[in-house]
Structure formats: structure tokens, C-alpha cells
Specification:
It contains two helices and nine strands, in the order E-E-E-H-E-E-H-E-E-E-E. The protein is an alpha+beta fold.
């Protein structure tokens, strides 16, 4: 399933904990509500194992809109961290009932890019069903111990 959502990516922050309640900041909860509206028409994926490829197209800085700057995407290396962006998308997918549980995701691939001059920020999600590995020997841990310079572990 291929999904493109025209929304600016927002990282999932740490929840705020008070003596009386635990809550997320307003910016994140508003973003999550907009994501739920965009994801709600999608059917639930009933698979046991899922692979997800994510591409976060981040907003282009105003300083990069000059005529001499190239009009293409380039890697985004500033905050927010990619793991917090992933967590926000997984929470939205689960809350919108597109996936049953985010623990069923066994492989994730993600990248952050800055949008080209003509592009708007978005999130591209590609969900693949099933759990086939390209390299079966790398998909499980062997019981053999490894020899290193520090000894066997």
C-alpha cells in the first residue's frame, strides 16, 4: 500500500507528566488529529508481519529559495530526529486503525529530505505485507559465538 500525505512531518515529543495527568504538547496532538483525518478512509491491514518504508519531505528553509540554489531535494540533517518522526507516524497509523499494532512491523526504512523549491512538505508511506527476508541468514541470530579482539562473547 502506497500512501502520500500532504502534511508537514512532526516528531513525537516526550509526554508531559504532571501530578494529575500525562499529555502531549498541543502542536503534536493537532498534527496527530490531522493525520487521523487523512488516514481514516484507508482499510485495516490484517497481516501478521509488515515492512514499512518512510520518506519525510521536510519544509525547505527560506534561505534556500534563492534563484542560485538548486531546485532538487537534498538530505535533511537537522532536528527533528528521524526516530521521533517514525514514532509519530506509527502512532497515527495505529490510532487510525490502518495497522493493528506497531509491534507487527519487523522492518523499517526511513529517510528525511528537504523539499525541492516547488514541493510542499509531505510524508510518503509504503507498507509491504508479509515477512520474507532478502537474506535469510541475516534475519535471525545464530547461536554461534563470535571471536573478537576482546575474547569470545
Amino acid at each position: 500500500m502506497y500512501i502520500k500525505i500532504d502534511i508537514e512531518p512532526v516528531a513525537c515529543p516526550r509526554p508531559k507528566v504532571t501530578r494529575y495527568a500525562t499529555f502531549y504538547p498541543k502542536r503534536y496532538t493537532q498534527w496527530r488529529e490531522r493525520m487521523l483525518i487523512k488516514l481514516s478512509p484507508l482499510p485495516m491491514i490484517e497481516e501478521e508481519l509488515l515492512e514499512i518504508d518512510l520518506k519525510f519531505i521536510m519544509k525547505r528553509p527560506k534561505s534556500k529559495h534563492r534563484r542560485k540554489d538548486l531546485d532538487q531535494r537534498y538530505p535533511h540533517t537537522k532536528k527533528p530526529d528521524i526516530d521521533n518522526l517514525i514514532k509519530g507516524v506509527f502512532d497515527a497509523l495505529q490510532k487510525a486503525s490502518v495497522i493493528r499494532e506497531d509491534s507487527l512491523i519487523w522492518r523499517v526504512s526511513a529517510q528525511k529530505e528537504v523539499a525541492s523549491k516547488s514541493e510542499s512538505p509531505s510524508i510518503i508511506i509504503h507498507i509491504k505485507r508479509g515477512g520474507t527476508s532478502d537474506n535469510p541468514s541475516s534475519s535471525h541470530i545464530t547461536k554461534q559465538s563470535k571471536q573478537t579482539s576482546r575474547g569470545i562473547y
